[in-house]
Structure to design on (72 residues):
């Protein structure tokens, strides 16, 4: 249960960063070579993303992984 809370907060942070760059889920998924449905699961807090995935996403969003994780 506790892990789900952190995944949910991570997803909210990811949505905020993606929205700030004015990218849709589909656009971010295409740019990061990720399945859109997996990205949606991460944003909903239903998936446990790897560090490799987070690094790939943050590189596209032009932020640091630590910035994405700071509100957890």
């Amino acid at each position: 249960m506790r892990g789900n809370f952190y995944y949910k907060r991570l997803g909210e942070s990811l949505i905020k960063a993606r929205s700030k760059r004015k990218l849709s889920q589909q656009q971010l998924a295409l740019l990061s070579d990720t399945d859109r449905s997996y990205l949606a699961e991460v944003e909903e807090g239903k998936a446990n993303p790897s560090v490799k995935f987070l690094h790939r996403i943050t590189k596209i969003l032009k932020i640091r992984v630590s910035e994405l994780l700071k509100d957890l």
